Design the sequence.
């Protein structure tokens, strides 16, 4: 094999690391791949770490120990996150998207890969420290953002369903009270979640919190710990939800006649970290 130049090595390393966020790659892996010494690879990683940090592209973290190495993590700083969400809020505010029942039309936004990936990166940044084993969502509109969050965290996505599916095998079913007060059913395969695992709940919309509480109750049936809850949008009213400790990216306010929507970035995005 011809000698690989440093710029070629670094380009390939960055592609490999960003394609598998939160996955640890050993120095030996890169040494074997590029035919380079560990000291050389360490220098390359130091250069990449500075570049990634300087341009706000995330972070490269060195993990020590026998199973150590280097991994890439998405990191969206609060000012950048606030700027992105503020632009999205302007796009969603107004009267043209208001739907009956106090909802907002967001299907086009949740189908845009660029927007969805960025939201997933913002959510993942907030929950890396909780070390979730998987991301849980409820079918169907929350799936794109939950998938992007799971991808950024480097963990699997688990989807709870409203009806049992024969191809899911044996399932656990629970009843829950939705935000509108109706009784719904939530199903999840017994093989989907291991007892003692850590769960991050991600969904598209939070109103009263009934569906979210149903997912919390479902995880209790599996013996799994819910380490966080994140939503694309929540409503300003009712102020008291059926859950607590959640984070939403945006807050929806409707006027008295439910004809005009005002969407604002969530308050926690005002931080500087």
Sequence:
């Amino acid at each position: 094999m011809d000698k690989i130049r440093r710029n070629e090595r670094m380009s390939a390393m960055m592609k490999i690391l960003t394609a598998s966020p939160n996955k640890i790659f050993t120095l030996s892996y890169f040494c074997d791949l590029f035919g380079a010494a560990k000291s050389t690879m360490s220098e390359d990683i130091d250069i990449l770490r500075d570049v990634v940090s300087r341009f706000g592209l995330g972070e490269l973290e060195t993990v020590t120990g026998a199973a150590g190495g280097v991994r890439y993590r998405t990191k969206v700083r609060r000012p950048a996150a606030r700027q992105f969400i503020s632009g999205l809020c302007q796009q969603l505010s107004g009267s043209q998207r208001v739907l009956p029942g106090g909802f907002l039309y967001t299907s086009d936004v949740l189908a845009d890969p660029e927007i969805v990936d960025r939201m997933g990166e913002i959510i993942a940044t907030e929950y890396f420290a909780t070390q979730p084993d998987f991301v849980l969502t409820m079918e169907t509109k929350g799936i794109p953002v939950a998938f992007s969050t799971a991808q950024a965290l480097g963990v699997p996505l688990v989807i709870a369903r409203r009806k049992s599916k024969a191809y899911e095998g044996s399932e656990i079913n629970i009843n829950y009270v939705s935000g509108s007060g109706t009784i719904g059913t939530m199903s999840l395969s017994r093989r989907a979640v291991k007892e003692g695992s850590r769960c991050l709940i991600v969904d598209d919309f939070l109103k009263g919190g009934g569906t979210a509480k149903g997912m919390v109750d479902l995880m209790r049936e599996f013996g799994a710990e819910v380490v966080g809850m994140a939503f694309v949008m929540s409503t300003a009213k009712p102020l008291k939800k059926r859950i607590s400790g959640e984070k939403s990216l945006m807050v929806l306010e409707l006027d008295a006649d439910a004809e005009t929507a005002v969407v604002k970035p969530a308050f926690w995005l005002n931080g500087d970290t």
